[in-house]
């Protein structure tokens, strides 16, 4: 379950506790999905962009570095404070602004952005269809939406969600690429590209920012130890000390 209904001012304990770790995480600050997302939405000088669930701002700052004027939205004050500090560190504070808000009720006017992005966050949302409608609402005609998120192998969503919730209690539900494509097309956008990639991680890398020795890690190891071989093969390559992180990057356009 996500931690609060959109609109409620309720600092999230998980992201509040781990805000510094997200800000300094090399795996969040970079990653193939970030480069692909920025390229797929056509980021460039002077374009207005909104980064939804911006966290500590890695995507917003990548868009700003490409020349966009960016508004980053997130409900967790500790994450936004880290994002603002990173923007100052990189000298991008004049191109990016961070505001509190929820994906399901974006505090922005209709058709106000050429680019809307949402990276590694939608699996936390209480109501993804509503968030998709909101992202489409703020997109200008001809503008592009870019989504990057973990994506389960078809048919493995329930097991992935159960494991993710053990390490991160704010995980709600991860969608596969077919569900994302249907949602954005159902909201009136034209799908331009869907890319799926797999990153091979150690279990410890996947568990981060949860401690590799904590109660969350013990619960994950116990569940992995009881998995049937085909599931273990799909999620860990057959080795419970490893993790196969499957990700999707989707780009779509609002018809002009
Ligand atoms: C992993 S972080 C985001 C990472 C960031 N997008 C990046 O590229 O580095 C997930 C963020 O989702 C935010 N979040 C969770 N539920 C949300 C919701 N319903 N609306 C907006 N943001 C949400 C959390 O506050 C957290 O900062």
What does this protein structure show overall?
With 256 residues, the chain is of the alpha/beta class. It has a domain at 13-152 and 169-198 and 248-253: Vaccinia Virus protein VP39 (Rossmann fold, 3-Layer(aba) Sandwich). The protein has helices at residues 13-17, 19-24, 26-29, 32-40, 58-65, 77-89, 128-138, 157-167, 177-186, 203-207, 215-225, 229-236; strands at 48-52, 69-74, 96-100, 113-119, 139-150, 190-202, 242-253. α8 runs antiparallel to α11. The protein is globular and about 50 Å long. Bound molecules: S-adenosylmethionine (SAM). S-adenosylmethionine is lined by residues 2, 6, 12, 15, 28, 53-55, 58-59, 74-76, 79, 102-104, 119-121, 124-126.
Give descriptors for this structure.
12 helices; binds S-adenosylmethionine; 23% strand; Rossmann fold; seven-stranded mixed β-sheet; 256 residues; alpha/beta
